[in-house]
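Revision sheet: C-alpha cells.
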Amino acid sequence: MTEFPDHRGWAVFFILIASFTDFLDGYLARKRHEVTDLGKVIDPLADKVGIGIVAVCLLLTGDIPLWYFVVVLARDALIFLGGVYINRRKGIVPQSNMAGKIAVNVIALALLLSVLRVHSLEVVRICTIWLSILFMIISVVIYAKRLFIGRTVVLRG
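Predicted:
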C-alpha cells in the first residue's frame, strides 16, 4: 500500500463525517416519521459495508488482528442473513436492537483508534476491541432469540 502525507488524518476525517451523516440521517428519519422498510435495510447495510472497507484496510496495514476482522465480518454476515431469512419467512423487516447499535458504534471507535495508531491510546484501543466483542455477542444472542423464538419487533413507518 502506498502511503501519502497525512493519510491517517484524512481517514479519520472521512470516518467522522460518515458517522455524523449516518447519525443525522437516522435522527431526521425518526423525527420526521419517515422510517421505511427500505431504509431499515439500506442503513445497516451501508454501516456494514463502511465498517468492512475500513476493516479490510486496517487488516492489510496490520493495524487490526485477523481474528478481530473475522469476528466483525462474521457477526455482520450472520445478522444480514438472519434478517433476509426473517424477511422471506415472515414478510417483515426486523428492527435493529440497541446492543447492535452500541456494537456498531464501539466497533467504529475501535477502528478509529486503530487508524489513529496513537501509542498512548493503545490500552484504550484494546479495551474498545474487547468491549465491541462483548456487545457483538449480546446483539447476536438477541437476534438469534428473535430468529428462533419468533419475537421479531417491527417498526411501522
